[in-house]
């Protein structure tokens, strides 16, 4: 469940001159590589030498039609004159906008509001989730105008870069394409490939819900996987580490936090050699290597790097966002196969900034509601996909919502045979108990687990109820792990009149385009009030499950990059967990359930040196976890503020 709701402008216009015969072309629209629709555009060449494009976008996303119509008129010299955009930019967001450029002025209309503003230099009025043909025209305008360092879009500067030249082998000859990156039309980079005629071959981006989208000309449909993989590689390299790798690091005069034993050691030191903890103990006893970089912690708390156990790294910007918030390991719970493989290999090679990625490969069943292209209609198809994921280094398989019971069982059996675990949703038409019996190991999203229990009239779950005791016994015997995503439901059920900084104190530091994605996320106040009891039940059940011995792991399902993990931990403490227990949910517990507790999850000799310094005491106040001031991972030191600035976050 990923929610990126509010979208931005696409802007287009009207015909003012007599049209000549039209040209028509199209792009194929994909969501997670699955064909879901078309973008068709008609070009009318005007008698005055200008051009008028009318654009018709239509796709169907998980049972919902998403239509959009747009226009743009260019002068004979290729400068934009008028734009309009009306329709939907996702299943959940609409647009009704227009721009008219007259001399040095812009007349901007959004819904029923119109304003006149001065036209800035180097201006091309594009903004947010624009159709592919508009992106092509933007790049053509940029090239015609000598590639200015910054283009002024409607609501801020846009950066455009030439990244590489790619050669594709086609039956009728090689195709030479320029790979172009565009930053800040949406939050983060989009990637385009332009052929030698100046035509767009492909665009890889996200939609207004944060899902991966690809627009591809039919001639290049067979190259789709190439474009998806290269967008991860080129994108990750844009954020390559500026800090050098240190062979030896000594952190002295800190407070060492043992999250497993729930102990602290004051005035402690940690010696790191080649990315591993070689020694830790009292600072006065430390023997510091001669070549070590020395960090004076000044009594800041030293904790293991945090884990997000429900990530979806669908943009390269998530790598820096995680590092800046002290999250050094994530479980990616479903992504494009080639994209996540390319991103992980680029980061692991030291050519990008990001956490250690543990991959969970998604498998869904067929149908209009299916997610992506990893589809298993039969047991044999399910087994083949598990083998594909295993061969590619995935740790887990993720079940999605359209799978049938016999396919679920085959997937679980094959995954366990291969030494993998199985996580995910409870498929539609199946019960939680049935899915547990068939072999799922980890359940994502608390409501799926709620189904397994008998509730009273208030919706509360009494684990002393005979049926509930029986179900709890089964969960314990099967060693089921739960990823509740409480912060997700808090945001989804937020009353729209409640300021977002009530949930996320750092909200105002987010880039404006990212803020806009969350502004409309929530419910009308009257409806939100009805959800308050459900949220209380969720928190109570998390506490009960934890007390009963069910492992709880902290995950976010995207939302506000990095910061939502902090909120998840705050909600665990609000539910009744101690601060120690909440910290364990984002450190040693996920390391343990993923089979990696011998190498990570705590600060111990011989383990990976994933270390964060916190300017506060999260054991006394869990919200102090928000005060991460230094991150060490893969032998590199990161200043969170500096890393955040690279992806447009403020202080």
TrEMBL record:
Keywords from the UniProt entry: Signal
Pfam families for the chain: Amidohydro_1
Domain Amidohydrolase-related residue range list: 321-636
Transmembrane segment boundaries: none
MF GO annotations: hydrolase activity, acting on carbon-nitrogen (but not peptide) bonds
Tagged with keyword Signal: yes
Gene3D superfamilies: Amidohydrolase, Urease, subunit C, domain 1
Designated name of the protein: Amidohydrolase family protein
